[in-house]
Design goal:
- The complex is a heterodimer of chains A (295) and B (385).
- With 295 residues, chain A is α/β, with parallel strands linked by helices.
- Chain A contains ten helices and ten strands.
- Chain A has a single domain, classed as Thiamin diphosphate (ThDP)-binding fold, Pyr/PP domains (Rossmann fold, 3-Layer(aba) Sandwich), CATH 3.40.50.
- Chain B is 37% helix and 22% strand.
- In chain B, β7, α6 and β8 form a beta-alpha-beta unit.
- Chain B is globular.
- The N and C termini of chain B lie far apart (51 Å).
- Classes of the chains: A alpha/beta (295), B alpha/beta (385).
- Chains A and B meet through β2, α3, α5 and α10 of A and α3, α4 and β10 of B.
């Protein structure tokens, strides 16, 4: 022992957001420079700022890197099958309408294998908050082409560059009937936190697209540098256009990124429509479902 | 616990098996169903959609069978008793979620009104050709329970049992109807609610913090909670430890998968439900299930009238297969005759258990209609010589 050792009483320091995580599951699996953790941080900050009742929150994920979000959050959380987070969440929400149900998953999970469920849940205005972390690739399986991969980007299954046009996700959500549609990147942490708060407060099918770097696969294969380089790209090329026509917000390879809140409107949810319809049809004989729930 | 009177249509009805199955589900406490139209099963959910608004519950027609089969699992974790209803092609699409239900130990009932296959096959005509698919169809090792009703009355009665077993064992339970049973109209007596015994969910008595989602009880089944009650559970289809956390190693895999299989295997003696007739002095035993049991019963009666010592063993619970019972019979009879509306599925179980101690004869039928009594009778007479 060095004689220079000094005993200093350090206070127990803890990140005030740590109680939101299952600390016995940390460290997480995400790579350095990945933006999923940043998006989760914004989500947790939103919950904290809203003092959200965590016992009334359920998070549902599909499969993939973003699919692991459910496992780290200290709430009722469901890690489901590939692509099927939305129909699971539909059953969970209809099973207990008192819950706020957030679907947190990746672009491949939600829009390739799960695309059918997304469009129908949006059409029905199912009361779900769907968060898509879009990193343009399949991270967990090693960087294959996704329905979001920009034209020209290289992926393991598009080794000579992608020739399939990608989805414009906000346009897809808008045209299917989502009541709230926004896009931010993980560079925009304040705006992202605000969007999470708006999404948590909004009733109906809410869609938030979060652009995130995948330095290990997408950036490396396309020689785009590390996570910081992608954040610089987000900073330089992002254009805030709230209320933009979603037809105009498609993404191109390293091109401009339109961010903002594109859609914010009102429409009866599936459950509201059902209760309203049956009340009209059956009158007093109908007890609106989920309104005075008996357990 | 007795049935909730709100869901029970006590009295005599003249309805088909699909409708009776729906009434059984509602009487059993099912308040959430999701489904996708497919012949010959659709009438079950049509009736559910018509009945449930005034009973208090939800039906949703999902975009496909994949969605239906996981929407019910979400509703189960919200606290509901749940079912989905389908037929062959839909059942094939549901396979991944049957595995997910087995892995996450989610109580649920899958109704399969069987039709001829493979593929689109014979949508409007019967078969019993999904018997092995429901036992082995999803990847990996797991175990299930399957029941096979042979009348509209049993579609009601056994459906209540199916829901009760799903709660007791926290495993997918299959209700293996077929097109004939589904569309056959007969008298169905629905008892008073106080005469219907329903098994409630095995809710934990523990407090949050004390509770581990996959800590098994003595019968290997863990206690359950639901979302929204403060337990903050994590549920995953990944191999998991007793906390429910992913555990990617061979030890966790061995412990979990063995328990999933053993909770049925080691309780199999409690899961025997058969109807035996004339087994005491039998030289030959016909083993049948579902609609085929009604044809087999006629063949057995004719063989008895012709002086042959023939018995009939009808499997009401088909999975788990009643191994000790069939093994005991094998030690004292000459032969088994196994008619089924497939080209030989459950007969493989009979052969495996009989293990050469007696002759086993299949009476296969590719489906599209039921057997002729004469076909089964001929086999009986052939082996009873």
């Amino acid at each position: 022992m060095s004689s220079l050792a000094v005993n200093v009483e350090l206070p127990e320091l803890q990140n005030p957001l740590m109680p939101y995580l299952r600390q016995d599951r940390i460290p997480h699996i995400w790579c350095p420079g990945c933006g999923i953790g940043t998006s989760l941080n914004a989500f947790i900050r939103a919950l904290d700022e809203m003092q959200f009742d965590l016992n009334k929150l359920a998070v549902v994920s599909g499969i993939g890197c973003t699919g692991r979000v459910a496992g780290y959050l200290n709430v009722d959380s469901f890690h489901t099958t590939h692509g099927r987070a939305i129909p699971f969440a539909t059953g969970l929400k209809l099973g207990n309408p008192d819950l706020k149900v957030v679907v947190y998953s990746g672009d491949g999970d939600l829009f390739a294998i799960g695309g059918n469920h997304f469009i129908h849940a949006a059409r029905r205005n199912m009361d779900l908050f769907v968060v898509c972390v879009n990193n343009f690739t399949y991270g967990m399986t090693g960087g294959q082409v996704a329905p979001t991969t920009p034209l020209g980007a290289t992926q393991t299954t598009m080794p000579y560059g992608n020739f399939e046009p990608p989805f414009n996700l906000p346009y897809l959500a808008d045209s299917c009937g989502a009541v709230y549609v926004a896009r931010w990147t993980v560079y925009h942490v304040r705006q992202l936190t605000r969007a999470f708060k708006e999404g948590l407060s909004k009733k109906g099918f809410v869609f938030l697209e979060v652009l995130s770097p995948c330095p290990t696969l997408y950036s490396r294969r396309n020689r785009l540098g590390d996570g910081v380089e992608q954040l610089k790209y987000y900073k330089e090329k992002s254009v805030v256009k709230n209320g933009a026509d979603t037809r105009d917000v498609g993404l191109s390879f390293q091109g401009d990124i339109v961010v903002g809140t594109f859609v914010n409107r009102e429409r009866p949810t599936w459950l509201e429509a059902m209760n309203e319809h049956f009340s009209q049809r059956f009158g007093d004989r109908y007890q609106p479902y989920g309104v005075h729930r008996e357990d | 616990m007795h049935a909730d009177p709100k869901g029970v249509l006590t009295g005599l009805h003249f309805i088909d098996g699909d409708h009776a199955a729906c009434e059984g589900a509602i009487a059993a406490g099912c308040r959430f169903a999701a489904g996708y139209p497919i012949t010959p099963s659709t009438e079950v959910v049509e009736r559910f959609a018509a009945r449930i608004p005034l009973v208090g519950g939800v039906f949703i027609q999902m975009e496909d069978e994949i969605a239906s089969s996981i929407a019910i699992l979400g509703a189960a974790w919200a606290g509901h008793k749940v079912m989905t209803v389908t037929s062959g092609p839909g059942l094939s699409l549901m396979m991944e979620h049957i595995g997910y239900a087995a892995m996450t130990e989610t109580p649920c009932v899958f109704v399969d009104v069987q039709r001829g296959g493979p593929s689109t096959g014979l949508p409007t005509l019967p078969a019993q050709a999904d018997m092995m698919q429901v036992r082995w169809g999803s990847h990996g090792d797991y175990n299930v329970i399957a029941l096979s009703p042979n009348s509209p009355q049993e579609c009601f009665d056994l459906m209540i049992k199916a829901f009760n077993l799903a709660e007791l064992y926290r495993t997918p339970v299959f209700f293996m109807m077929d097109e004939v049973v589904g569309h056959m109209t007969e008298r169905v007596a629905i008892p008073r609610p106080e005469d219907i015994e329903v098994v409630p969910r095995r809710w934990t008595s523990r407090k949050p913090g004390d509770y581990r989602a996959y800590e098994p009880g003595e019968d290997l089944v863990p206690e359950m909670v639901k979302a929204g009650d403060g337990f903050r559970v994590h549920i995953t289809g990944l191999t998991h430890d007793e906390r429910g956390y992913p555990a990617m190693n061979p030890q966790a895999q061995d412990k979990l998968v063995r328990r999933l299989v053993d909770k049925i295997r080691k309780n199999a003696h409690k899961l025997v439900d058969v109807r035996g007739e004339n087994l005491e002095d039998a030289d030959v035993v016909v083993i049948s299930y579902g609609i085929t049991s009604r044809i087999a019963a006629a063949a057995v009666e004719e063989a008895r009238a012709a002086g042959r010592k023939v018995g009939h063993l009808r499997l009401v619970i088909v999975w788990p297969f009643p191994e000790p019972l069939v093994a005991e019979l094998a030690s004292r009879v000459k032969a088994f005759v196994v008619p089924e509306l497939n080209l030989g599925q459950m007969v493989r179980e009979v052969e495996r258990v009989v293990a050469g101690k007696a002759q086993v004869v299949s009476v296969p039928h590719a489906g599209g209609t039921v057997h002729q009594v004469e076909d089964i009778l001929a086999k009986i007479l052939e082996v009873a010589k």
